[in-house]
C-alpha cells in the first residue's frame, strides 16, 4: 500500500510537503511545479488519500473549518446554456444547493481527463462532491469515487456502480409508441441519437430500445430507412428528415417518435417545408417537454420529464453523500407522463 513516504521519496521532497499538498493546506506555500509532481506521483503510485484528505482538512480541531461547501458540476458549458433540458436540470441543482449554503462549481470534462492531475483539480478547487452529466471514462469514475462522492445524471450513468438520478427512458418511449398505436398508427419511425463517444451506437440507447420493444410487442415492423441517428444534432435531424421525404415521399411513416423535443422540432420544420401537414401526413411525438415545444407549429406532443426535480434530487443526494448520511450508491428513477398536443392528435383508421 502506497504511503506518503513513498510519494515523498519518488518526488524528492519531505513527507510534510506531500501532506500539505494532498490536504490542501494553504498555511505554507508549495511551488506549483512541486505540487504538479506530487499529484502525478499520487496517480502513478496509486495512492488513495485518507479520510482527512477527502474532507480537505485544514484544521483538525475545528470540524467546521474542514468544509468548503463546494460541489462540482461536470458538463459541457454550452450544453447547460443552450439546451433547455440540461438548463432546467442545472437550475434545480443550483437552487437546491444555494438553499443549503453550498456553492456550485463548474468543471469541464477536459479538466478531468488528465488523470495525473485529476485529484489536483478536485483538491485545488476544494470540491467535496461531483455531479456528472458529461460522459467521462469508467476508469475516471472509479478513481474519483475513491476520493469524493459522485452522482450521475442522464443515460451515461444508468448502469454504472454509482449513485444515479434519472428516469426510465425505455419505458417512456414504449408508452409513446403504445399511445400512437392506440391512435391507429402502424407505420412508425424513430429519430434519436446513439451512445458512446461518437454517438454512433443507436441500438444501445434506451429510448431506441423502448421503440424497438414496443413495435415488436405490437407486431409492427421497424424499417431501417425510417430510423434516423442524428447523433443528437438538430441540424442532422432536419437534414435527414429532408432526405427521407425526398427519397420516399410516396411511402412515409404516419408517425415519428423522437428521442428529444429538439430533434422533433427540427424534423417538423423539414416536413412543413416539404408541403406536408402535421399530424395529417406525419404525426410527431417528442421527449423532455421543453418550453419551446408549446410554441412549435403545431404544438408538440411530448413526454414530461421532471427535469427540475431531477436536478433537485441530484443536489440533495450529493449533499447527503458528502455529509455521510447516504453511503450506498442509490438509484432514483423519477416518473414521467405523456403530454398530448396537436402534433399527434389525429386518429387514423
UniProtKB/TrEMBL annotation:
Q: Which Gene3D superfamilies match?
A: 3.40.50.2300, lambda repressor-like DNA-binding domains
Q: Which InterPro entries match?
A: HTH_LacI, LacI/GalR-like_sensor, Lambda_DNA-bd_dom_sf, Peripla_BP_I
Report the SMART domains cross-referenced here. Answer: HTH_LACI
What sections of the sequence does the record tag as coiled-coil? none
* Highest taxon above the source species: Bacteria
* One Pfam match: LacI
Keywords on this record?
DNA-binding, Transcription, Transcription regulation
Q: Taking every annotated instance into account, which residue ranges of this chain make up the domain HTH lacI-type?
A: 2-58
Q: Which GO terms describe its molecular function?
A: DNA binding
Q: Which PANTHER family match?
A: HTH-TYPE TRANSCRIPTIONAL REGULATOR GALS (PTHR30146:SF109), LACI-RELATED TRANSCRIPTIONAL REPRESSOR (PTHR30146)
Spell out the protein name for this chain.
LacI family DNA-binding transcriptional regulator
Annotated organism of origin: Bacillus salipaludis
Amino acid at each position: 500500500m502506497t504511503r506518503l513516504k513513498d510519494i515523498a521519496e519518488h518526488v524528492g521532497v519531505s513527507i510534510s510537503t506531500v501532506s500539505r499538498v494532498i490536504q490542501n493546506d494553504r498555511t505554507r506555500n508549495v511551488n506549483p511545479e512541486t505540487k504538479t509532481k506530487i499529484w502525478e506521483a499520487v496517480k502513478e503510485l496509486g495512492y488513495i488519500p485518507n479520510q482527512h484528505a477527502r474532507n480537505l482538512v485544514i484544521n483538525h480541531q475545528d470540524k467546521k473549518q474542514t468544509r468548503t461547501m463546494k460541489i462540482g458540476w461536470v458538463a459541457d458549458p454550452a450544453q447547460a446554456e443552450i439546451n433547455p433540458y440540461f438548463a432546467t436540470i442545472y437550475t434545480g441543482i443550483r437552487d437546491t444547493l444555494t438553499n443549503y449554503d453550498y456553492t456550485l462549481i463548474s468543471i469541464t470534462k477536459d479538466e478531468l481527463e488528465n488523470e495525473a492531475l485529476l485529484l489536483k483539480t478536485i483538491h485545488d478547487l476544494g470540491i467535496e462532491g461531483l455531479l456528472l452529466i458529461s460522459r467521462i471514462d469508467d476508469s475516471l469514475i472509479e478513481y474519483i469515487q475513491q476520493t469524493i462522492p459522485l452522482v450521475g445524471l442522464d443515460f451515461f450513468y444508468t448502469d454504472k456502480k454509482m449513485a444515479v438520478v434519472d428516469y426510465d427512458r425505455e419505458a417512456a418511449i414504449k408508452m409513446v409508441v403504445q399511445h400512437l398505436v392506440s391512435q391507429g398508427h402502424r407505420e412508425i419511425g424513430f429519430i434519436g441519437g446513439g451512445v458512446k463517444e461518437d454517438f454512433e451506437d443507436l441500438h444501445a440507447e434506451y429510448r431506441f430500445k423502448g421503440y424497438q420493444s414496443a413495435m415488436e410487442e405490437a407486431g409492427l415492423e421497424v424499417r431501417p430507412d425510417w430510423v434516423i441517428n442524428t447523433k443528437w444534432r438538430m441540424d442532422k435531424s432536419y437534414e435527414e428528415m429532408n432526405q427521407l421525404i425526398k427519397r420516399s415521399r410516396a411511402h412515409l411513416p404516419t408517425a415519428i417518435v423522437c428521442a428529444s423535443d429538439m430533434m422533433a422540432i427540427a424534423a417538423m420544420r423539414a416536413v412543413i417545408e416539404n408541403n406536408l401537414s402535421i399530424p395529417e401526413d406525419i404525426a410527431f411525438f417528442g421527449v423532455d417537454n421543453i418550453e419551446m415545444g408549446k410554441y412549435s407549429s403545431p404544438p408538440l406532443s411530448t413526454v414530461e420529464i421532471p427535469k427540475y426535480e431531477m436536478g433537485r434530487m441530484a443536489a440533495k443526494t450529493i449533499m447527503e453523500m458528502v455529509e455521510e448520511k447516504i453511503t450506498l450508491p442509490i438509484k432514483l428513477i423519477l416518473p414521467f407522463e405523456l403530454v398530448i398536443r396537436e402534433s399527434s392528435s389525429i386518429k387514423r383508421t
